[in-house]
Amino acid sequence: MHIAIAGNIGSGKTTLTRLLSKHFGWKSHFEDVDKNPYLNSFYEDMQRWSFNLQVYFLNSRFRQIIKIRQGGGAVIQDRTIYEDAYIFAPNLHSMNLMTTRDFENYSSLFELMSSFIQPPDLLIYLRSSVSNLVTQIQKRGREYEESIRLDYLKRLNERYETWINKYNLGKMLIIEVDKINFEESREDLGMVIEKINAEIHGLF
């Protein structure tokens, strides 16, 4: 069983992945942030490093999915390969931060890779307002995220909503994260777990 958590920067994907992995005993796969050689450079100069960063993520997540499917058992994944292809890369292209030539090359790579993979059995989407994202980003205090612009987060949010409204690859659960705090409230986490249990039982 493959569960994946989707959501904008600062929506709580990593935190929820960790909490659910601990609760259910699922194996967790996190986004490769600390070892990513392009992330700092990207936030310093998005135009120069956008293609390199997106290809790195595409490669990293493709390898992750292959590993998940080969390993068997129950797995929870922090962010999906689809978010890179349908949200982050097109957003960079539309903001003129990735050339059309690079974007078409990237899209062609994704198209090929996606023909070899299966979507998650359950997608959990963490829906958040931009103001909540900003609060969470500031709270965790990652130096390279200090330069993230509000309009960048807003554009990403709009693309997330478009993608989620059209998502038809499998079961999906939407969690409104502005209204809850699953990290600090046992009650809120319990509510999320209850919703997930209801969806999981529907998978079999």
Under CATH at level 1, the class stands as Alpha Beta
Secondary structure tally: strands: 5
Structural classification? alpha/beta
How much helix is in the residues? 55-70%
Strand order of the largest sheet: 2-3-1-4-5
Query: What would CATH call the architecture?
Result: 3-Layer(aba) Sandwich
CATH superfamily: P-loop containing nucleotide triphosphate hydrolases
Radius of gyration: 17 Å
- Helix/strand order: EHEHHEHHEHHEH
- Within the CATH hierarchy, at the fold level, what is the topology? Rossmann fold
Approximate shape: globular
Can you characterise this structure?
With 204 residues, the chain is α/β, with parallel strands linked by helices. The chain has a five-stranded parallel β-sheet, sandwiched between helices. Helices cover 57% and strands 12% of the residues. The mean pLDDT is 92. It starts with a strand and ends with a helix. It has one domain: P-loop containing nucleotide triphosphate hydrolases (Rossmann fold, 3-Layer(aba) Sandwich), CATH 3.40.50. The chain has helices at 13-24, 39-44, 46-71, 81-94, 100-114, 130-140, 150-166, 186-201; strands spanning 2-7, 27-29, 75-78, 122-127, 171-176. Helix 3 (46-71) runs antiparallel to helix 4, helix 4 packs antiparallel against helix 5 (100-114) and helix 4 crosses helix 7. It is globular and about 45 Å long.
